[in-house]
Amino acid sequence: MALLFAAFMGMLVSFLGQLPLGNMSITATQIYVQENARNAWKYAIGVAIVEVIYLRLSLKGVDWIMQHKLFFTVLGWLTVALFLVLGVASFVSANRQQSNKKALLLNNKMDRFLLGISMSALNPAQIPFWFIWSTYLLDNKVIQPVSSQYDMFTVGAGCGTIGGLAVYMYGGNWLITRMNASMKNLNKAMGGIFILTAVIQLYRMVKGFL
């Protein structure tokens, strides 16, 4: 029973964490709308795999993270630069594109599973998210610091991530179809989200130095 509860808590936290609008969730919508469900699911699974790796790092403890602080600092600055470039490029591309042309991020032959892995890896904010939540749940004895519960918590988190992205796949497709939104406007929205994500990450990085 305790193992099932640990899995449920992991799924719940991860699912709710995916619901706020972000670059990974809107990308899932774009892939579903502009390509197909199969590619969208491959993308979601790729995102989830990296998510559970970051979760395991968080469960391993802050000591490991502190020992590799330089790696995450470099990754954080790369994320700022990459998302700013993608945001600006998405706006430029949207203004020039034909109505149904693919989004800039999807206008390539990269396997969508690898795209999911890449985008999730470039989101180091997942580590503090999971570290805070796992610490809270452990302190309040919602889950116990034993390997079996960690494993089930991680499995549940992976399922929750996929479930949250599925909401954007199917719900986003329904909303876009209902609103008859153009791909051009969707791509502009994606550009705005990339820039907003970059600004938030930049704030976190600057705050970390102060």
UniProtKB/TrEMBL annotation:
The keyword Transmembrane applies. It comes from the Bacteria. InterPro entries: LeuE-type (IPR001123). Pfam families: LysE. The keyword Coiled coil does not apply. It is found in: Cell membrane. It is a multi-pass membrane protein. The chain crosses the membrane at residues 40-59, 71-93, 113-138, 150-169, 189-206. Keywords: Cell membrane, Membrane, Transmembrane, Transmembrane helix. This is LysE family transporter. It comes from Danxiaibacter flavus.
